[in-house]
Amino acid sequence: MVHIGIADTMFARYDMAKDVIDVLEEFTGRVTYERYTVPGIKDLPVAALKLFEEKDCDIVIALGMPGPKAYDKMSAQVASTMIGQCQLMVRKHIIEVFVHEDEGENDRHLKQIMKDRARKHAYNAVYLLLDPAWLTARAGTGTRQGQEDAGPVNA
Amino acid sequence: MVHIGIADTMFARYDMAKDVIDVLEEFTGRVTYERYTVPGIKDLPVAALKLFEEKDCDIVIALGMPGPKAYDKMSAQVASTMIGQCQLMVRKHIIEVFVHEDEGENDRHLKQIMKDRARKHAYNAVYLLLDPAWLTARAGTGTRQGQEDAGPVNA
Amino acid sequence: MVHIGIADTMFARYDMAKDVIDVLEEFTGRVTYERYTVPGIKDLPVAALKLFEEKDCDIVIALGMPGPKAYDKMSAQVASTMIGQCQLMVRKHIIEVFVHEDEGENDRHLKQIMKDRARKHAYNAVYLLLDPAWLTARAGTGTRQGQEDAGPVNA
Amino acid sequence: MVHIGIADTMFARYDMAKDVIDVLEEFTGRVTYERYTVPGIKDLPVAALKLFEEKDCDIVIALGMPGPKAYDKMSAQVASTMIGQCQLMVRKHIIEVFVHEDEGENDRHLKQIMKDRARKHAYNAVYLLLDPAWLTARAGTGTRQGQEDAGPVNA
Amino acid sequence: MVHIGIADTMFARYDMAKDVIDVLEEFTGRVTYERYTVPGIKDLPVAALKLFEEKDCDIVIALGMPGPKAYDKMSAQVASTMIGQCQLMVRKHIIEVFVHEDEGENDRHLKQIMKDRARKHAYNAVYLLLDPAWLTARAGTGTRQGQEDAGPVNA
To answer: CA dist D65 to A122, B32, C48, D75, D125, Å?
Structure first.
């Protein structure tokens, strides 16, 4: 049995946690989870740390949607750096699921990316814990989340 | 009873702490607070650390107004990174309330953003401590501080 | 009695430490100081750490003049980040007094900025230790070092 | 006998680990290895840490292919920074083998770079552990991985 | 007697360590040294850490030549950041001698910069340990390595 933390934000414009939970429910009996919501992406690193230290999570899925402006990009870089720092502190993975708002051409497209990236990374988180060979079998294959797989080099 | 630290700067062109305090006064009996002022945003991270370690704060609200020039942006990135580092050291949230001076089209607009962002994040800080479910109920809804909510994707 | 460290560089084109010392001498009897010079700004963070740990300083004033080129800007960012890291390690303030060489329109202007910023931050350092209320009284007022105060928003 | 960790990603579009393993097999009897695959480059730092701490690796080769977009570049910077942090934590080398997707003019070229860089860095990793003088003999000679050597300055 | 570490790379196109050693030999009887070569600049921080912790160095001179492309610049920033982190860990100076390949207008100029910067910083490293007043005497004078001194402001 593994315990998965979900950290998400009020800032994001789509509720990716619902999709993550939908995937995790497929693994009932082997996976439990809990959720912690914060205002924005820069609040995610310590939220993840709390999920690890106070809630005994084995992995955390960190969901965020950086905005399109220059200082949003800077916030994303700070958040990612500290998510990296947190992982080294606890020796556990945080699967960062960030969708930049300007990745979407419109709201419909943005939602589609967020849904797809959240679901696929939920599987990645589960398999990292329960079946790491699943990932090795896909190493170097151009696997993508939020879009079609790029596939391996065609050469 | 929770104790909230307010760290702010002489550099900022509007006294956001007053608005934060105004909100916190609504919670008298459940919330106490104290304030520590430093010269500029790069002085905020250790100010927050002192509020946690020397004043037993449960959360810190860090108020700053980065200037419009390239090196001001760099200062903001350094300050945010170290605010992130501080949170991981103490395992507690710092709610960063930064308003870039060039977010405002004029002084009137700048003040309006600063006031709104400070007040809304003061509520966020209180609810993170006293009622975290309040935030989860708003997860993925495009909540904003300093401007109108963006709202969820319309798709 | 407080002990103030001054860390400065051979790279800078004006001796800001002299101005800092001139201000600190006004506080004789309440303030002592010592100085440590390094080649450039990236050497300042560990210089500050040594002033704290080997010389028992209560605060450090770090004086530097980043050059105008892209890699000088990068050096400034690295130096500022590590100055931030050092503060969190020792739980004490480092007042960073950086003047970018291209802030000055000419040598005369550059010197004027460096002199003014160094002197005003020397007062900031002293008051942070001896009279923190002095800073709170100026919170949110658009106080500047190296130029005229910007003043509060006019709205 | 030294033990080498290989950390790689599903995101990369070519399986560089195969080339690394091919090189390491030349050192059978003196080198053992194991592999750990993660979704993308930001997952590599903690993967490396786990290879050091849970699998007793003496060095880790971290294989990744950052994408061509601005946020891919940002991910690469975060990943590299945390790979640096991890090395300082464990006091051991991580040989970072990153090939930016846009280094390749086409798939054929990209594969050629990835193959060459992976193989050459596999030798570097082995010699760092088994024969450091091999590297000193090549100091300052403009050695490259993923392309022809630049060679020493011609002056 | 002080012990100086020299960390350098195979990537650089000129052997700066030879010039550093040439300078250090002038101090025979007061200075000893040793050298450690790694593939590229991102390998320098942990190389320096090993020189401090495994070889008891009192200071390290880190020699590198970042390439001219955008990702080379990013590597330089990561390397410098981690060189800064390493200094704070060990409480000792690392004198970073980086020459960006595009500082040189041609190979001849590049070599001249590398030679000059390496030699001058070798003196800086020695004097930081043996005669710190030598540096203070030059504080704020616009001292440069790799080019003519800029000199103090002319105002």
So the answer is: 22, 50, 38, 11, 19
DSSP assigned state of C28:
B
Instruction: Confirm if E63 and E99 have CB atoms less than 8 A apart.
Output: no
Cα torsion E13, E18, E23, E29 to 10°: value is 150
Task: List pLDDT tens digits, range C109-144.
Answer: 999 999 999 999 999 999 999 999 999 999 999 999
**Spatial contact of B47 and C46, defined as CB atoms under 8 Å apart:** no
CB proximity C89 to E under 8 Å = yes
CB A63 within 8 A of CB A20: yes
Enumerate the domain spans of chain E. Answer: 2-136
**Chain E touching partners, 3 or more CB pairs below 8 A:** C, D
Cβ proximity of E114 and E14 under 8 Å: yes
Radius of gyration of chain A (CA): 15
Closest by CA to A82, choosing from D79, B96, B85, E82, is: B85
Cβ neighbours around B20 below 10 Å, total: 25
B60 φ, ψ (degrees, to nearest 5): -125, 140
- Domain C2-136's class? alpha beta
For D84, the closest chain E residue by CA position comes to: E82
Q: What pTM was estimated for this model as a whole? A: 0.97
Read off the pLDDT of residues B78-119 as tens digits, 9 standing for 90 and up. Answer: 999 999 999 999 999 999 999 999 999 999 999 999 999 999
Contact, C137 vs C37, CB < 8 A?
no
**pLDDT the model gives residue B155:** 83
- Amino acid letter at A68? P
Contact map slice: A 2-61 vs D, CB within 8 A: none
Q: How far apart are CA A24 and CA A123, in angstroms?
A: 8
Q: Which helix (H) or strand (E) holds C94?
A: strand C94-98
ipTM over 0.85: yes
- What token pair was written down for C139? 């919170």
Rounded-to-integer distance, Cα B41 and Cα B118, Å? 15
- Helix, strand, coil shares of chain C, percent, nearest 5, are 50, 20, 30
Q: Which of residues 96-115 of C touch E (CB under 8 A)?
A: 106-108, 110-112, 114
SS (H, E, C) chain E: CEEEEEEEECCCCCCHHHHHHHHHHCCCCCEEEEEEEECCHHHHHHHHHHHHHCCCCCEEEEEECCCCCHHHHHHHHHHHHHHHHHHHHHCCCEEEEECCHHHCCCHHHHHHHHHHHHHHHHHHHHHHHHCHHHHHCCCCCCCCCCCCCCCCCCC
